[in-house]
Design brief:
Order of helices and strands: EHEHEHEEHEHEEEEEE
InterPro entries: Calcineurin-like_PHP, CNP_phosphodiesterase-III, Metallo-depent_PP-like
Keywords: Hydrolase, Iron, Metal-binding
CATH superfamily: Metallo-dependent phosphatases
CATH topology: Purple Acid Phosphatase, chain A, domain 2
Largest sheet: 6 strands, mixed
Structural class: alpha/beta
CATH architecture: 4-Layer Sandwich
Protein name: Metallophosphoesterase
Family: Belongs to the cyclic nucleotide phosphodiesterase class-III family.
Pfam family, one: Metallophos
CATH class: Alpha Beta
Helix content: 10-25%
Number of helices: 5
């Protein structure tokens, strides 16, 4: 079984950020010992250098292989120029050794804009990575900040990818198994043409809707199922969704 932690939207620097929440989540993840951890953007709130530096300090405490992509907040105030220096490359791949899983990270942010875009060059990179993974029989995961499919309970749709239709078609045509995103602060899953889309909530801020509480997702992937669990800040873990694994 492959075990992955998925957290998003730390919002370091926001008045709604609470350090104890991210430290507690990191302790839980390190205790769980996943095969990899994926962070899908908005590590900072304003993209300021010091915010990204502080976020990098938190991320470095995660004791697992790591894939991190930026969010729209990380690309404010020249944060797009600081992200690679302080944290990680803005897009790339992570192969989980001996587990047959390839995670492909994309940068969907644009400087000083809330809306997102993958763009043609990254789309080509993604398609080539997906085809290579398919040829090697790997389970294929895409990670990016912006959602591709609208998320319920989030009000009027404003910030879906501007090229969502083209990216969605590429994902489906290349038989992507799982897509991880953040941005809306609401945990949710969809399945479209056998591709699972899982959105994580905010792990360490109180930028929340209704009675939601901070959370992160964990994923258990075995030969038969993709099991997505919600881990909330009150210490509870509950099922979010379970789907058949078509990549057997």
């Amino acid at each position: 079984m492959v075990f992955i932690a998925h957290l998003s939207d730390l919002h370091v620097g926001s008045m709604s950020f609470h350090e104890e929440l991210i430290l507690d989540a990191i302790d839980k993840i390190n205790e769980m010992g996943p095969d990899a951890t994926v962070v899908t953007g908005d590590l900072s709130d304003n993209g300021y250098y010091q915010e990204l530096k502080q976020a990098a300090d938190y991320v470095e405490q995660i004791k697992t292989p790591l894939l991190v992509v930026p969010g729209n907040h990380d690309s404010r105030h020249l944060g797009n120029e600081c992200f690679e220096e302080l944290i990680k490359k803005r897009y790339g791949t992570l192969k989980i050794k001996n587990q047959g899983v390839k995670i492909i990270g994309l940068d969907s942010s644009e400087p000083d804009l809330n809306s997102g875009k993958v763009g043609r060059s990254q789309q080509e990179f993604m398609e080539e990575a997906l085809k290579s993974a398919s040829e090697n029989g790997l389970f294929k995961i895409i990670a990016l900040h912006h959602h591709i499919i609208p998320v319920p309970r989030t009000g009027r749709e404003r910030n879906v990818l501007s090229d969502a239709g083209d990216i969605l078609m590429s994902l489906i045509e290349n038989h992507t198994d799982l897509v991880l995103s953040g941005h809306k602060h609401v945990p949710h899953t969809w399945i479209v043409h056998e591709t699972v889309f899982a959105t994580a909530g905010t792990v360490s801020s109180f930028k929340l809707r209704g009675k939601d509480i901070p959370s992160f997702n964990t994923l258990e992937i075995d030969q038969d199922y993709i099991n997505i669990l919600l881990n909330t800040a009150d210490g509870k873990t509950c099922p979010l969704a379970k789907y058949e694994n078509r990549c057997r």
